Amino acid sequence: MTAPIETTGAAAEAQPEAVLKGVESKRIEGRSLGQIAWLRFRRDKVAVAGAIVVILLVAVAAFSRPLQALLGLDPNNPDQSLIDPNTTLPKGDFGGMSADHPLGVDPKFGRDLLARILEGSWVSLIVAFGATLLSVAIGTVLGVVAGFYRGRVDAFISRMMDVFLAFPLLLFAIAISASLQGGAFGMEGLPLHISVLIFVIGFFNWPYMGRIVRAQTLSLREREFVDAARGMGARGPFILFRELLPNLVGPIIVYSTLLIPSNILFEAALSFLGVGIQPPQASWGGMLNQAVKYYEVDPQYMIVPGLAIFVTVLAFNLLGDGLRDALDPRSR
Amino acid sequence: MTETTDDPNNKIPLQKAPDTRPGPAADAEPLLKVRGLVRHFPITKGLLKRQVGAVQAVDGIDFDVRPGETLGVVGESGCGKSTMGRLITRLDEPTGGSIEFQGTDITHLSTGKLRPMRRDVQMIFQDPYGSLNPRHTIGGIVSTPFRLQGVEPEGGVKKEVQRLLELVGLSPEHYNRYPHEFSGGQRQRIGIARALALKPKLVVADEPVSALDVSIQAQVVNLMDDLQEELGLTYVIIAHDLSVIRHVSDRIAVMYLGKIVELADRTELYENPMHPYTKALLSAVPVPDPKRRTQRDRILLKGDVPSPINPPSGCRFRTRCWKATEVCTTTEPPLVALRTGHQVACHHPENAGEPAAAGTKAPDGQASSDQ
Ligand SMILES: Nc1ncnc2c1ncn2[C@@H]1O[C@H](COP(=O)(O)OP(=O)(O)O)[C@@H](O)[C@H]1O
Ligand code: SF4
Ligand SMILES: [Mg+2]
What we know:
The structure holds two protein chains of two kinds. Helices cover 70% and strands 0% of the residues of chain A. Chain A is mainly alpha-helical. Chain B has two domains: 236 residues, P-loop containing nucleotide triphosphate hydrolases (Rossmann fold), CATH 3.40.50.300; 77 residues, no CATH class. Classes of the chains: A mainly alpha, B alpha/beta.
């Protein structure tokens, strides 16, 4: 019964006490687990590449509008002179690629695809970040409460998670966006669509976060350092905020980073189905939706938003995996 | 632990020096008084949480802890030692019996009412990797008791923490380091420093060295022994074999499946073990002197400790006991004093040559049926 503890203990003891005693005078400041994770992360080339791409993407999305102005791009400026009136396809090869339109233009309207990708980037990321934030907020609070108080509270919250996960989310999303077309909550148009997407995606995805946080809390509260704190007279809030939460920050960051790409896909899917961002506003999912009609005759139109989604999702996933490996090497 | 006594570096068999101290007074008011202590963990089933049974982890034990003494508690894994330790430190609540600390009944006190007692009773944990929060610095960890109890030591918390670190053989400069930078032995020292911060009266150590390398076990045990002398501590030290605690204990309680089966002074227990289980445990202790090793036969216990959910009837040890008879199946042997300061729960005790002390129940006529 004591075997697992003894073996790990003996293995880790390999570094004899004397070794540590010898170096102690040189390095007085200790390295926190965070600093060690950072060192480990820096050595992971793939994850660093993912991080760089993510930073670039976020910068582009944040400055999307100024960037468009700077480059003289307009996502909603149709130009029929670029369209072959017979086929409604862009004139020229590769979807109308030219010096003026490096990624080509869309069929039927002749709008610049680079401009539309740039415009779609901030929409995609703001929805993904907003929804992730909402899921993390709800999931963390309810997950910690369930894991910490256990018993009936846990049973109730866990059943609630099951209900949310069983919810026909797509149908609900379609219904809600259809019924809110005209305007609601004092909003209309793009702000309304973005808010609805954030709510629908974030509010129904929190159980994934909640389950992870709950499981982590359950296992953390069995650790002996929690008993040690209780043995010194600590009460619930102290244990929660000082003993447990610092250990939950890492997993929460990791799984948030992994939730973002899945939310980007979700947004794209809803917009693709026509219940997310509405045209003429540019969005990656919406562009894919349009492009499907032309995929045989103008594959360029599909490749551009497809690639944008692919690169973004991949970069966030690589970053998330790298963070997980850096923060908890055993989880691999 | 296996036999490693041939290793010249192994310093464990440092016999506790013959006590020159005043010594724990047997007649003094006990620091801790445990009576009929029970902890059953309910086993529930289904949605309605219907109770279908119980893990009888601790099932009616009595003992005292006298001021200044070291009480060793020994028994195989799963015998309920940790549960007992968590009960007397009130990390867990008993389902029966009573615990008195310094004359106050603490059996069912609430978290709030327990706070004052928390200063006087501290615990040292088994797992040096789990007992320190990996996100806190050593300074933060060792100063937590001061924060939690609102104690402001003379000269400030930091100074006091650094003094404590020195006391346990660490450098005060470790203050800003994190637990993962230390070896198991060093972490256990940090745990000891934390336990001693508030100058407790009673320290309960649950297998404090069993997760450590054998060569380091002795260092930590000796440190605890030195600190006891220096600070006038009372210890309850839990171990799963006798090799560690026999050197530091004044008295030893042997636990089997939720019960105390033998409780005696160290030398008495060592020289005249009466319970077959104790004899088996003793035979497993490595003998330092190779010449003597052959003289004592090793008693190998067959099988494992039975499940505490459904313990054997009568004597709980009977399924593994080579002396078991009919009466052992039907009647549970009570823990009685067969000599002064030597309590045993067995129908056919070993080494019971002398008649039982007056006034106590001897294991009557049945003893003869054994021959
Ligand atoms: N919280 C708990 N819930 C249910 N059973 C428990 C719990 N804690 C301990 N037990 C059981 O009680 C018995 C005694 O355990 P423990 O006190 O840890 O023994 P020891 O420390 O002597 O190895 C074991 O069978 C164990 O499985
Ligand atoms: S009472 Fe019987 S079974 Fe139990 S230890 Fe004694 S002899 Fe063995
Ligand atoms: Mg134990």
